C-alpha cells in the first residue's frame, strides 16, 4: 500500500514539473507581458499618442513665446488644444488638452515657465489601444535669450483602460507614472537632446490579476529613447511609439 501511495505522489510531482515546463502552472499564469507593458509605456512617451515628447513640444513652444514676446512676470496663460490623427495614419489618436502656463521671475527677469496640463483621449496602435486621461506638471528653465537649450523637470501621469492586440485576452486598467529629470530641448531645432526619467507601469486584468513594471528612460538625442523595463531593454521611436527590443 505504501508503494502505491509513493508511486501516486511521484506521478503528481512529475505532472507538476511538466506543467511548469509547459507554462501552465498557476504560478506562471499569463498576464501582461514585458513587451505589452513596453507598448503601454511607449504610448505615454511618443508624440502620436500625446506622450511626454508631445507635452515637451508644447511646453517649450510656449517658453519660446515667453522669450520672443518679452512676456511679463507673473503672466498666466491658458490654452485648450484638440489633436486628431491624420486620415490613413497607422496609429489613430484623438486628445483634448487644457494647459496652464505661468511665467515665474527672479529679480524681475523671467526665470522659468511652470506648465500644468490635464488631458483625455484615446489612441490605437499596432500592439495596443487605450482610452485614458491624465496630467502633467513641468518646470521649463532656460528662458534667458543667451541660453541655447530649454531644460524640463517634472512628472507625467496617465490612467485608463487598455486592450492588447498581442494577446486579446489582456485588457483592463493601467496606470503610468513618469518622473522626468533634465529633459533638454535644443532651442534652434526644438528637438530633445538628452534627459532621463523613471517610469512605472501598473494595472490589472480581469481574472488574471495585477501587474507591475518599473524601469528607466534615457532620451538619446536622435529621436529615440531607451526604455529599460524590469531589466528588458527597448528602443522607442519618439515620433510613432514603435518599440524594438535590444
Give a description of the structure.
The chain has about 250 residues and is an alpha+beta fold. It is built from three helices and eleven strands, in the order H-H-H-E-E-E-E-E-E-E-E-E-E-E. The protein has helices spanning about 1-20, 35-45, 50-70, and strands spanning about 75-85, 90-105, 110-125, 130-140, 150-165, 170-185, 190-205, 210-220, 225-230, 230-235, 245. The radius of gyration is 23 Å and the shape is elongated. The termini are far apart. Residues about 5-30 have low confidence and may be disordered.
Question: What's this, in brief?
Answer:
This protein is α+β, with helices and mostly antiparallel strands and 246 residues long.
Comma- or semicolon-separated keywords:
single chain, eleven-stranded antiparallel sheet
The fraction of residues in strands falls at: over 45%
**Residue share in helix:** 10-25%
Distance between the termini: 56 Å
Which ranges are low-confidence, i.e. pLDDT below 50, for 5 or more consecutive residues? 6-29
Shape: elongated
Averaged pLDDT, please?
A: 88
Order of helices and strands: HHHEEEEEEEEEEE
- Main sheet attributes: strand count, strand direction, barrel closure: 11 strands, antiparallel
Amino acid at each position: 500500500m505504501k508503494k502505491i501511495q509513493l508511486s501516486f505522489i511521484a506521478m503528481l510531482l512529475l505532472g507538476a514539473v511538466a506543467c511548469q515546463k509547459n507554462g501552465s502552472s498557476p504560478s506562471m499564469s499569463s498576464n501582461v507581458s514585458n513587451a505589452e507593458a513596453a507598448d503601454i509605456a511607449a504610448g505615454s512617451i511618443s508624440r502620436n499618442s500625446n506622450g511626454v515628447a508631445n507635452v515637451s513640444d508644447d511646453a517649450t513652444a510656449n517658453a519660446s513665446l515667453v522669450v520672443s514676446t518679452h512676456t511679463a512676470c507673473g503672466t498666466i496663460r491658458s490654452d485648450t488644444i484638440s489633436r486628431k490623427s491624420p486620415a490613413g495614419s497607422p496609429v489613430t489618436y484623438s486628445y483634448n488638452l487644457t494647459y496652464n502656463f505661468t511665467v515665474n521671475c527672479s529679480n524681475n527677469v523671467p526665470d522659468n515657465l511652470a506648465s500644468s496640463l490635464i488631458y483625455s483621449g484615446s489612441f490605437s496602435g499596432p500592439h495596443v489601444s487605450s482610452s485614458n486621461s491624465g496630467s502633467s506638471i513641468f518646470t521649463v528653465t532656460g528662458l534667458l535669450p543667451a541660453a541655447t537649450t530649454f531644460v524640463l523637470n517634472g512628472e507625467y501621469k496617465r490612467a485608463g483602460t487598455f486592450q492588447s492586440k498581442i494577446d486579446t485576452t489582456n485588457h483592463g486598467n493601467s496606470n503610468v507614472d513618469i518622473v522626468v529629470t533634465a529633459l533638454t530641448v535644443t532651442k534652434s531645432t526644438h528637438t530633445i537632446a538628452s534627459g532621463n526619467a523613471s517610469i512605472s507601469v501598473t494595472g490589472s486584468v480581469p481574472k488574471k490579476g495585477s501587474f507591475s513594471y518599473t524601469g528607466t528612460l534615457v532620451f538619446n538625442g536622435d529621436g529615440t529613447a531607451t526604455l529599460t523595463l524590469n531589466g528588458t531593454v527597448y528602443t522607442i521611436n519618439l515620433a510613432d511609439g514603435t518599440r524594438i527590443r535590444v
